Amino acid sequence: MGMNRSTTVPPRCSSPLRGLWLLSLALALCCCATAAQTRVAQDPPKAEGASRGRILLVLTNHGQLGDTGKRTGAFLVEAAEPWVVFTQAGFDVTIASPNGGEAPLDPKSLRKISADSQAFLDKFASDGVVKDTTSLSDIDPADYDAIFFTGGHGTMWDFPTSSAVRDAAQRIYDQGGVLAAICHGPAAFVQLKGDQGKPLVAGRKLTAFTDAEENAGRLAEVIPFMLETRLRELGAEFDAAPNFKENVVVDGRIITGQNPASARGAANEVVKALATNQRDNDN
Q: Which residues constitute the domain of residue 88?
């Protein structure tokens, strides 16, 4: 029931009718208040008190789109929405990158700015660049419960080759932490090893920016390799949804999202996985 904000003047009427009118007005106000409480309860709660843990949110340092002369970098929404989800859930978030310092944002991701993206920009960025990221070489992976790799085409150049990316992700996962990535972020996984030195992704269900999406964006000939193809070659059980539709895949402590539309969903799954880890540790 909507609440009319215009001033309501009681009609001039007999006392019984006036009483009925007042009763109807009271019931209407009660319904509006109940509806408002329901809407508020559905919003993500902002946790209070002690931190629930620590999460590394990793952006690329690479800002050149091959030899095209165009700029690239991290895709804004894939950093902003996870940051909002994690902080609202009560986690401390460290914004990191392979080398530290400036992390460029893909100009295409700055064309349409949501409230979450604007909040991220206001806090961390100026002129399309996240100004002060922490180098992965300077962090102690033992201090973190999860690592989340954002996407953007820049990741295709530095995530697969960075020893700092490899060491941080490998240690966090090996110590029982959550390994997560969105869009091109799973490029960080190609270096990781599982049992007996096999690729960590072998036999694991996951997703990433698909070959079909890459072809639709006409960048297949620009990037160093096709991410879906490489993950399949490494033995991953790759799940591909229709182009640019939300798709989040959870396989134990490995969580992946296919594209920018999947960023919030992937972050929410990380929060759920960390809650499960905490319950298991408490038992």
A: 54-282
